[in-house]
Every structure is written in C-alpha cells, then in structure tokens.
C-alpha cells in the first residue's frame, strides 16, 4: 500500500507502496506446473511425534491457542455465525468476500488470511509453546490466487517463552521483519518468506537494519524485486536484525538462505531458482495455486532449515532451501502465518496445518525456559531479582494427571500449571505451561550465574503408573555486558565535505550470548553502520563500520567534529544490553598562523633586508591547500623595496603574484619563506603576509596576517666610551689599572677614532696591561685607535702607581675627529676616580687539628692557614703558637719558615686575597682536652678586624684500651705433697702471670700496672719473690703485697713467683688482683685469680713395748 495509506483493521502498520507485480505465467489452464527442472527430494520426515494438527477445514477451530488477527476468517463458518466460547476466536468471512473466495459455510473450508481487496492483512498465531529440542517439521497448504501477485505468505517461528500476540511489519516484511519504524515480531527466531510479490528478499523499508554485511540483501530498493522467491530471515529484536540467512553478493558460497541464483548479477532483478527456475508461489485459480509447504528445523547440535514444496497434490517434494539454522535455538517455539495486500492483491488461504517433531519425544517432554512474556530481566541481575521460569510439558503418551514440576531451585508447591491433566498429543490439552519464580541470592551473584534443573512428574490416568520427563536444565548468566570502543580509520587530514570512516569494536564482556546489535551514532544513521557478525558469545568481539560526510556547522569552537556512539544488543532471554556512550573528537578545522620578521628593522637605504615569513599549523587538524600571500614590492609607498630572491622550506613561492602555496601542513608543523629585497626609500614602510586560503576552516583569523614596519636610516656612527678602575682605593706604592673602552654602536663603521686620556701627575704611568688596542702617547695623552667596525670594541688598559695620598680623577674622551659623525655626544666621554691611602689589611688565621678526638700516643696533624683578606698587601706577617703540656711537637712544614718547636711561623708578605698554609705534627702525651691557640700579626699593617687574628685547635684525648689478663697457680715445694694437704712447716710456690691483650690492630703498651698480691699472713709466711717475663720495671713489695710493672708490651706476659711457708693448719686463699694502670682495661672479668692452700699437721707416733723380767715363772 502507498506510504500514506493505513490498513483499516491494523492502523499501526504502514502498507507498502502500490507496485504492480510482474509475474511470469508458468501455469497451464489445469493449474499444473509444467516442465519441472529439478529432481524430486525425499519426503518430509514422518518419524517424530505429532504435537499440533489443525485442518482449518471446519466451521470452528477448537484449540484456543490459535489467535486470529486482522482480516483472518474461517470460510467454513456459516454467514452470521460466531465462534463458540472456549474455542479459537476466528470470525466468519462475512466482511471479506472480495474476489473468488471459497463460499461461506461450505465444508471443507479454509483459513482465509485475505480476500482480493487491496490493503488487507490477516495473521494466524499459535500462542502455545511446542518443544524444539527434538527438531520440528511444520507442514501446511497455501493458496494464493485471483489477483496480480501480492503479497505472499510469511511463516515464522518465535521463542516459545514470549507471548505471541502480534506480528512484525506487514507488506514486504510478511509479518516477520521490521518495516521502516515498525518493529519486527517479538522473540523472532526464523522467518520464511513465501514471497509471490518479491520484496521480502530485499532490504528496502529498513529491513535488515543492524545486520552484518554478509547477511544483508544486495538490494535496498522496494517493490517486486525478487518475485516467487523463498527467503529466510533470522532472529531480530525491535527494529534491529531479522537478517537474510546465508551470504549474499560477494559471499564465499551460494546464498543458501534464498532461492535466488548465485552469483546475483542484477540485485534489483535477481530471478529465482524455485523449482528449477519455473516455480511460482501462486496461481490463477484456487486449484491451480495449491502448494504444500514443509519447513523443518533439524535438531541440535547442527540444526538446519529445510524448506520443501509440493507443487502438485500427490506430486514430488522439491527441496528449495537447505541452510544452517540461526544460532541459539530456543527450547520451544511458537509459530504463525501472515499475509497482506496493498496496491497489488491476491486471495491468501491456509489449510491442513501439522507440526511434528523430527525425533520422537519421550512420553512426557519438559522444556524449561526463562519466561519472556513479561518485562525483560535487567542486563545486570542482582541479589533480590526475581527470575520467572516457564515449563512447557507435552504428553505424547497415555493421558496423565496429577502433573507436578520438581526444580532444583524452586519448591514444587511454588510452581503452578495451567493444567495438571494432559491428553495425548496432538489432541487439544496435550500441552500445558507451568510457571515458577526464583529470587537471586548473594551466592548466585558471586557465582555470576543461576543453574537449575527441572523434571516433570505425572501419573498415567487415572491413578496409574508414575511417569517422569527427562531433566531440563537452564543456566541464566547474571552479567550481560556489552562494551564499545570507537576509532577513526580514515587517515588525516579531514575537511568539511569529506567522508570520514569510523570503526566500532563491540565486546561481549559478560556471560550471556548477545545478538541483534544496534550501533547508534549521533552523526550516522544506524542503518549506515554495519557489523561483521550478528552474534557474540561471551568473550568475543566484533567490529562495525560506518562513515559520515562532514557538514558545515558540525565543528565545535576548537575545530573538532565530536560524535558520540553507543551500542545495544539483546541476550537470548530478551534482556536489553546497553553500552555506555563513547565519543571521538576528530580534528577538522585548522589554525594556520602567520608570523613575519625582518633581519634589519632600520636598514640603510640601498642595503638588502631578509623577510622571514613562518606559517605554522596549530591544529587541531592537518591543513591542506594552504596559501600565504606576500607581494613584494609592497608597503607604503609601493616600491619601497624591490624583490631580489626567495627560498622556502616547504611549498612554492611565486614572486609575480606573491602567492606561497603549501600543499600540506601537519599539526605543529611550520614552513618558512625567506624573501630578500633591496630597500630603496628612506621613509618608514610596512610589509605584510596573510593567509588567504586553506581547504579546512580556520578557527582563528586573528593570526592570519603578520606585518613588519621598517624605518630606513642614513649613515652615522655612535661611539660610546666607558672608563673604569679595577680598584677604587690603593695604598701608596700599589698599582691600579684604568680600563677604557670605545664601542661603535653603529649603525655604520667609524674611521679616524682617537681618544684623549691624560694621566694625573700624582699617579705614575707604568704601562699597558692586556688588552692594549691601538697606540698611546703618555706625553700627549692621546690614544689612537683608527677604524672601528659596527659593534666593534677597542679596549686599552693604563697601569698606574699611587705616588701620594688623595683622590685622583682620570678622564677619557673622543677627540671628535672620527667619521661619519657621531649622532650622540652624550656618551663620548667617561671618567674614573682612584683613592690613594695608607695600607690596611685584615689578617686572619685558622688552625684545625686532625683528628679532633684521639688517644694518648696518637699523632695529631695541625693545619694552619694564614690569610690576607685585604684590602692591601701585608708584609712581615708572623703566626705564633703556644702548645699545651700534653702535646709534643714532632715535625713542622715548611721547616724553613717555622721554628722546630712550632711556636713561631714567619709567613712574610701576603697580598690581598693570598693565603699561606703550614702543617705541624704533634704527639699526644697526656689525656684530657688539649687546647692551643695560633695568633697572626704584622707590625707594619693596620688590621681593621682583630676578631679573626687568633684561632684555637682543640683535641680531646683519652687513654687507649686494652685487656690485662691475670692467672695464678700454686705448687707444694716438696714433691708428692698436694696443695690440699701441705704439712705445716713446708713451703709452697705461687706463680702469677699478667698478659697485655691489646685491641685488634693496636700495639698499645700497658704502663704503671699495679697488682695486689698479699699473702694470708695468719697461715702463710713470705719467704721470697722473683719477677720475670716480658714486663719492665717489675718489683714485688712483700710488706704491702703490691706487684708493680712499669710497662708491659702488647701481647707480652710478665710473671711473679712468690715462695711462702705454711705456718698454720687451715684453708688459706691467696688472690691476685689488678689495682690500676695508666690505660683503660676493657674487660675486668679476668683482672683477678685465686688459689687455695690447705695446711695440715702430721704426727709420727711410735709405740715401744718391753717386758721385765723377760723370763717368768708360773704364778
């Protein structure tokens, strides 16, 4: 129907434009197809389970699952009759009698979708799910006749979890696909277009929006493009998808999803391969138009769509299509048929509908799905979200009752069924739908999925054996996420009117399978964006492409074309998945800035100047077709300069037109044009360069023009004189240096340059110190220089001696004889003043010991620095030093300047800023803080700062550490007598040792060692003592019990032997202990030792016995 027409019964749909069909007459008068060109195929499968049958030949349709829309009616229903309550509500055909329709009330009848009137539409929907996992084989008779070939009959399968209550776009979309802004059928999985008119195959009317390139029709025209073609379209959602199945033009294989020849030579008249190219989908009469259609979707794992047609009743089956089925086959289907007319028309009838499974079903078949009849689940399913489930139970066995569902996640009591009693399929009541809900938990969210398994249970009626279905499992991913990235693929530069290509990368980062991608871009219509694939499994990505012609006014203030894109997709359970927005800023405009400089702002008339013109692209885009104009001669007045030559680092300059053409200028890139011209005027003038052209818009006109103004000058030479003295004051007899400079500041070279500089008589002229430019006559006071180039400087120094005290001024001035004239006499002279005074010097001394902390016996180095801090030279400088008693000078340097005891250092003359150094080495002889002070002086110099005339060096000393270890032993003098049993009156010998254990790496000698070695006088009496070993100056005092050692070398051992007599019985302990030494003992634990002597009294008893008389008598 024309775009302005609206179908009277279904106003929400727009009918297609009225285009007369050109249909080849391939039927003979009998209605039989002539000359079949293809061999017969195998009959459709018959081994499965029949689940739905409806002949539509009666006066009513008992099963209320059938839903009629639009102009659909039953011809077998008598005029004025109404469908009975509880049956399908399909009305009579009283209002649809246009053309040679079957007589009302005549049986067997037909399901009439349209009569021959224009702008008719009728649909029949089966809104009860049928199992899909065993495959389906659907057969029906169709009749299309009595008109001029419009539109055709559309057959479709949708996801059985949806509520099939409406169709998709009518007209060329045959009730399945989208049509302009009209959405396609909800839950669409497969559309089969039995297209007599010929526009289901093309992508006109926005069919196939969002489809990949290999699933798009080669034609986007609308009208009778491909009449008598059977085409397959896949899944879709809303206005996205419903793509042609199988590759089209340019694909690697024959387009198995449509009965068009391959390759397609004319996209707008592709022809047909139907029945070998001779088949049609309609006829002139009812009898001639009968076609029996069989559509199969084979079972998993590799399902295919097979379309077979029986062109003659009882004739052979011809397989017209055999293509891979769309991915993600649902577990149940609902189906329907649709037909319509527009400006062209036909009668459309249906009869003898049957649905079988390809594989036999078990007695009780359960298909579990997420229920899609309500609002879709959110893309991100969170804890607390309720997931609705639908359980479709089909009974192909004996009738059953007490049906129930067990589910691993949902209580049986929470699952309700439309019926718990099932007849045997295909009878009405053999299939029922049960429903349950599950609330997502936090544990499910952590697992990112919900898995559950269900089983149907029943009893063979009445009260017979238990029967159970196979398990049916469903996994619901909880995260459905799609991301989009966008980039420009067209290389820079860009310009208004240019075509820019974009690439969009879609990534499935969630857990659901996503399809039906719709990329939305605020610059490109969705129909202009094509993706490489229509389905993404989790973890997969695809790319989409689109292009845009940049229009005026689309750029922002910064010169960028900014566009924003997003993408949407649908999960297999109908969730709407939306990406975030992503924007791309494309630099289009440019900012070509011009700068201009000249090497000489004030040139001399007749000289050459060089103009430097720089063109810089500040972006944001690369610039092309750049033109800068700089006409030479130019300025005010014209002819102020004359062109000589030019050069460029990029582009080409034409001097006759002043055009500098730059083909391309990248962002941030600069090109330079230099023009050499001769100045031929003495008047000021201005020269300009301007950007006059770029291919891109320029966002900043403020920098498009740059100018320089020249001020020509006549020759002059400005001589500038400076005079200085190296020191403002000197003592009498010292020298100072006057420095005079003459600089020619131009703008021209100077000749005959001379200066007058008369030295005052109180200052004796010594001579010239470098530099000594020119010549000087001291008698006349004339310094002759001669020629002096522009910018050149002549310098001469005058060395003088102070003869008397006072302030003396020395003047230097040009003689005025130089050429060309000096335009600025204010800088032709300069003077400097010198003060001659008595000598003054600030003498300073610094004394520093190294190290500043040491032990007795260490060597200390004292560093002395004598300085003259000026301002004058200081003669006769001495440094004196007083050394403390604990420090002994060992050596001095320099020896010819310092006394051997280090007390006086003859420094001599120190000029200002001069320093002298000396080194004195001394030995620490005592512990404690050792301080000594050095003092600097000169008898002939006034020292204005006595605070730095002295410096002290402080050294903190300590005795070194070591370890004195003591041992003691005792032996009895008499052999064999133990010390534990020494008889009173016998002697014992005590042996004592003392060892000096120095610190590691040290060789310190221990001195002044004192040990306590008293004998226990009550039990022992001193006899004698002997000292020995390594110690020197050793002695033992028996009265005090003191053992003294004057010195004991490192690692040396001294010994003491004491002999004593035991004079009393008892235990006598003898202990030796270290009492003192000069150094520090680091380990007192071994400073003493003891032994015990036990005195005993031994007696020698003897018994003598005698008898007297020696002879006795008895009695």
UniProtKB/TrEMBL annotation:
Sequence segments annotated as region (Disordered): 205-226, 684-705
Top-rank taxon: Bacteria
SUPFAM superfamilies, A to Z: Concanavalin A-like lectins/glucanases (SSF49899)
Chain ranges of the DUF7507 domain: 362-461, 482-578
Pfam families xref list: DUF11, DUF7507
InterPro entries linked to this entry: Chlamydia_OmcB (IPR051172), ConA-like_dom_sf (IPR013320), DUF11_rpt (IPR047589), DUF7507 (IPR055354), Ig-like_fold (IPR013783), OmcB-like_DUF11 (IPR001434)
Coiled-coil region list: none
Domain DUF11: 591-710, 718-833, 842-955, 971-1093
GO biological process, one term: carbohydrate metabolic process
Name used for this protein in its record: DUF11 domain-containing protein
Lineage summary: Bacteria, Bacillati, Actinomycetota, Actinomycetes, Micrococcales
């Amino acid at each position: 129907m024309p775009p302005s027409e609206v179908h009277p019964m279904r106003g929400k749909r727009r009918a297609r434009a009225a285009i007369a069909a050109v249909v080849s007459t391939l039927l003979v008068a009998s209605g039989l197809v002539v000359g079949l060109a293809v061999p017969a195929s195998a009959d459709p499968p018959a081994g499965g389970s029949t689940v739905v049958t409806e002949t539509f030949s009666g006066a009513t349709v008992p099963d209320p699952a059938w839903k009629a829309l639009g102009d659909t009616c039953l011809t077998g229903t008598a005029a004025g009759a109404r469908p009975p309550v509880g049956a399908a509500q399909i009305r009579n055909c009283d209002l649809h009698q246009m053309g040679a329709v079957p007589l009302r009330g005549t049986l067997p009848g037909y399901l009439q979708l349209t009569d021959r009137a224009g702008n008719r539409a009728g649909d029949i929907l089966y809104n009860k799910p049928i199992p899909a996992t065993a495959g389906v084989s659907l057969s029906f008779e169709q009749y299309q006749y009595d008109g001029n070939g419009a539109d055709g009959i559309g057959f479709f399968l949708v996801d059985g979890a949806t509520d099939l209550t409406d169709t998709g776009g009518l007209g060329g979309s045959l009730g399945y696909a989208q049509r302009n802004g009209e959405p396609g059928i909800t839950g669409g999985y497969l559309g089969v277009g039995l297209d007599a008119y010929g526009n289901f195959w093309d992508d006109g009317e926005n069919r196939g929006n969002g489809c990949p390139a290999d699933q798009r029709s080669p034609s986007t025209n609308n009208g009778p493009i491909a009449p008598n073609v059977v085409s397959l379209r896949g899944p879709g959602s809303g206005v996205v998808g419903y793509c042609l199945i199988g590759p089209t033009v340019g694909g690697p294989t024959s387009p198995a999803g449509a009965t068009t020849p391959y390759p397609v030579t004319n996209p707008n008249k592709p022809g047909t391969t139907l029945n070998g190219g001779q088949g049609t989908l309609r006829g002139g009469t009812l009898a001639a138009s009968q076609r029996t259609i069989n559509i199969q979707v084979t079972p998993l794992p590799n399902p295919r769509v097979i379309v077979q047609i029986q062109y003659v009743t009882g004739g052979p089956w011809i397989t017209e299509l055999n293509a891979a089925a769309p991915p993600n086959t649902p577990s149940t289907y609902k189906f329907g048929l649709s037909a319509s007319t527009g400006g062209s028309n036909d009668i459309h009838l249906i009869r003898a509908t049957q649905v079988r499974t390809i594989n036999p079903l078990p007695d009780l078949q359960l298909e579990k799905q997420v229920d899609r009849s309500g609002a879709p689940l959110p893309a991100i399913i969170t804890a607390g979200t309720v997931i609705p489930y639908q359980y479709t139970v089909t009974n192909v066995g004996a009738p059953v009752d007490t049906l129930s569902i067990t589910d691993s996640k949902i209580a049986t009591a929470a699952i309700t069924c439309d019926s718990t009693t099932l007849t045997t399929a295909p009878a009405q009541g053999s299939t029922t739908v049960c429903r349950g809900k599950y609330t997502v938990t936090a544990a499910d969210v952590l697992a990112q999925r919900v898995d559950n398994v269900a089983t149907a249970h029943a009893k063979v009626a009445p009260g017979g054996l238990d029967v159970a279905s196979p398990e049916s499992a469903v996994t619901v991913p909880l995260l459905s996420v799609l991301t989009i990235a966008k980039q420009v693929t067209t290389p820079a530069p860009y310009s208004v009117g240019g075509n820019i290509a974009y690439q969009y990368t879609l990534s499935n980062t969630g857990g659901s399978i996503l399809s039906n991608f719709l990329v939305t871009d605020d610059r490109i219509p969705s129909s202009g964006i094509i993706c490489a694939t229509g389905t993404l499994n989790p973890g997969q990505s695809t790319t989409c492409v689109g292009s845009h012609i940049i229009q005026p006014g689309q750029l922002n203030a910064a010169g960028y074309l900014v566009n924003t894109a997003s993408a949407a997709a649908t999960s297999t359970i109908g969730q709407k998945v939306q990406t975030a927005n992503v924007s791309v800023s494309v630099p289009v405009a440019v900012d070509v800035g011009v700068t201009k400089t000249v090497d000489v702002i004030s040139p001399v008339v007749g000289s050459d100047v060089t103009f430097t013109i720089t063109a810089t692209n500040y972006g944001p885009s690369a610039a092309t077709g750049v033109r800068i104009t700089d006409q030479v001669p130019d300025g005010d007045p014209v002819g102020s300069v004359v062109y000589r030559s030019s050069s460029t680092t990029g582009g080409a300059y034409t001097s006759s037109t002043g055009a500098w053409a730059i083909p391309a200028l990248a962002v941030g890139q600069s090109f330079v044009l230099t023009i050499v011209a001769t100045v031929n005027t003495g008047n000021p003038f201005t020269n300009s360069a301007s950007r006059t052209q770029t291919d891109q818009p320029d966002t900043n006109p403020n920098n498009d023009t740059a100018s320089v103004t020249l001020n020509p000058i006549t020759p002059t030479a400005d001589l500038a004189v400076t005079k200085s003295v190296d020191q403002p004051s000197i003592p009498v007899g010292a020298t100072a240096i006057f420095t005079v400079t003459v600089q020619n500041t131009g703008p021209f070279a100077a000749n005959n340059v001379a200066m007058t500089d008369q030295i005052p008589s109180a200052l004796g002229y010594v001579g010239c110190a470098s530099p000594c430019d020119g010549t000087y006559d001291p008698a006349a006071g004339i310094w002759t220089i001669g020629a002096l180039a522009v910018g050149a400087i002549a310098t001469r120094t005058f060395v003088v001696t102070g003869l008397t005290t006072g302030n003396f001024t020395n003047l230097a001035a040009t003689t005025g004889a130089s050429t060309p004239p000096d335009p600025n006499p204010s800088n032709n002279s300069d003077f400097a003043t010198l003060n001659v005074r008595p000598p003054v010097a600030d003498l300073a001394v610094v004394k520093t010991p190294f190290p500043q902390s040491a032990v007795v016996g260490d060597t200390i180095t004292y560093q002395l620095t004598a300085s003259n801090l000026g301002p004058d030279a200081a003669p006769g400088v001495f440094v004196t030093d007083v050394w403390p008693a604990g420090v002994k000078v060992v050596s001095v340097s320099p020896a010819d300047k310092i006394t051997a005891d280090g007390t006086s250092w003859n420094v001599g003359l120190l000029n200002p800023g001069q320093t002298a150094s000396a080194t004195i080495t001394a030995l620490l002889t005592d512990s404690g803080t050792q301080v000594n002070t050095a003092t600097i002086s000169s008898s002939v110099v006034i020292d204005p700062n006595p605070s730095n005339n002295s410096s002290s060096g402080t050294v903190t000393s300590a005795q070194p550490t070591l370890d004195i270890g003591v041992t003691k032993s005792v032996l009895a003098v008499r052999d064999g007598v133990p010390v534990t049993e020494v008889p009173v009156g016998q002697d014992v010998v005590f042996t004592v040792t003392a060892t000096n254990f120095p610190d590691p790496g040290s060789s310190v000698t221990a001195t002044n060692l004192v040990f306590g070695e008293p004998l226990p006088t009550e039990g022992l009496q001193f006899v004698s003592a002997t000292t020995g070993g390594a110690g020197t100056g050793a002695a033992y005092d028996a009265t005090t019990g003191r053992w003294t050692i004057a010195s004991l070398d490192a690692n040396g051992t001294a010994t003491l032997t004491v002999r004593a007599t035991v004079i009393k019985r008892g235990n006598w302990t003898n202990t030796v202990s270290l009492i003192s030494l000069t150094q520090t003992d680091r380990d007192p634990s071994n400073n003493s030792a003891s032994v015990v002597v036990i005195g005993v009294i031994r007696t020698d008893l003897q018994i003598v016995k005698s008898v007297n008389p020696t002879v006795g008598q008895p009695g």
